[in-house]
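Rotation project, supervised by the postdoc (A.L.). Task for the rotation student: set up a whole-complex structure prediction and record inputs and outputs verbatim in this book. Inputs entered:
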Amino acid sequence: MKLSTRNRLPGTVVGVEKGDVVAKVTVRVGDNHVVSLISRESAEEMELEAGKEVMALVKATDVMLMTEDGLA
Amino acid sequence: MKLSTRNRLPGTVVGVEKGDVVAKVTVRVGDNHVVSLISRESAEEMELEAGKEVMALVKATDVMLMTEDGLA
Amino acid sequence: MKLSTRNRLPGTVVGVEKGDVVAKVTVRVGDNHVVSLISRESAEEMELEAGKEVMALVKATDVMLMTEDGLA
Amino acid sequence: MKLSTRNRLPGTVVGVEKGDVVAKVTVRVGDNHVVSLISRESAEEMELEAGKEVMALVKATDVMLMTEDGLA
Amino acid sequence: MKLSTRNRLPGTVVGVEKGDVVAKVTVRVGDNHVVSLISRESAEEMELEAGKEVMALVKATDVMLMTEDGLA
Amino acid sequence: MKLSTRNRLPGTVVGVEKGDVVAKVTVRVGDNHVVSLISRESAEEMELEAGKEVMALVKATDVMLMTEDGLA
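Outputs recorded:
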C-alpha cells in the first residue's frame, strides 16, 4: 500500500470522546498530543480506544507553520 | 495569543524547496518528519531555512487515523 | 509571531453554539459573517462569546473562487 | 443554486500569479485581502484577472480562530 | 456560475443523520457512496433528504491517492 | 489496514502533469473525473502514470454539497 499523504505520525490513542455524529480522538505521538475529529462511525468501525496503536495522517497542504519571537 | 488549532508540533526546519508559487518545507518533529506545502511568499516572509525552529500547526479536522493489521 | 497562513480576517464574535464535541462560532468581519466549526474544547479555552474580538484564519489552499453570470 | 459552504465573501480580483500547476489569486474583500491557491487550469477557465468580481468560498471547518493578548 | 473547485460528482442523497451542530449526509455517486459532514444548518437550509439530487464538490488539494499491492 | 477516511473512490489514472513542487493527477472514477493536487515527490514515489489503478481518498469534512434549481 502506498499513500500520497506525506505525514504519518505513529502513536497511541489516549482518549476517545464520542459525540452524536463526530468523535474526538486524542493520540500521543512522541512528546506531543495530536487531536483528531473524525466521524463517530469511523471511530467505532476502527474500534478506537485508549491503548490502541494508530498512525495519524496529515496531508502536506494541511500543515501550517509558525515561528515565534525569541525562537532561533 | 490563543489559537483554536489543537495540534502544535514543535520542530526544526531541515529543508526548504521553493517552487514558483508553492514551497515545500520539511520539519523534524521528534523522531518524525513533517512536510508542509505553503505559498512561496510565506516561506520567504518567514525566512524559513534549515535550522530554524518552527511550530507545525494542524487542525483537528485535518487529522486522519489509520490502524494496521498486526498492530496492537 | 509569524504565521504561514495568508488570510487573517479581524472580526467580532456574534454567536457561539456549543454541540457535544463541536462548536459553531459566527464572526462578523466587515459586512460579512464568517462561520467557524471548531472543537468545543477550543471554544471554551478561548472563552469565545458574543462581543469578543478574534482573527479568523484561513489557509490559501482552503479558499475556493466562484464567478457568477452577470457579474463583471 | 444552494451550497453547503457557509462562507461566501464577495470581492474583486487584484492579482493573479500563475505557476506551472498552481495559481495564486489575490482578492480584495472589504478592507482585507484574501489569497487563494487554486489549480492554474481553474484560473484560466474562469478567466480570472485584476478587476474581475468573484466570491471567495470557505468551508466552516476550514476557519480557525485566534485571540490576541490585549484585544477585548 | 463558474467554480474553481475541480471535482463535481453528481449523486442522490441516500441518508441524512443530524447531530446537534453537524450533519452527516450520505450520497450515492455511481457505484460508490460519498459521505459529507456539513453544518446542521446547511443541511436544513438545503432541505437535504433521501432522494434529493445533489452535486458533491471536492477541492483538488483535498484528494489523496492510494495504490494497493497487487493492483495494476 | 483500517482508515478513518470515509470516501474511497476506485479509479484509473488518466493523466499526470508534474510541476516543480506539485503534481496534478487526473483519475477516472466511473463516469466522472477526479483531479488531485499532491506533492511531486508523492507522484514519483507512487509511480503514478496513465493506466495505473488507484483509490482516491477524501475526508468527509472535505465534501461540500450543492443543489441546483430545477433539479428534483
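Student's summary: The helical segments of chain B are 40-45.
Supervisor addendum: The first helix of chain B runs from residue 40 to 45.
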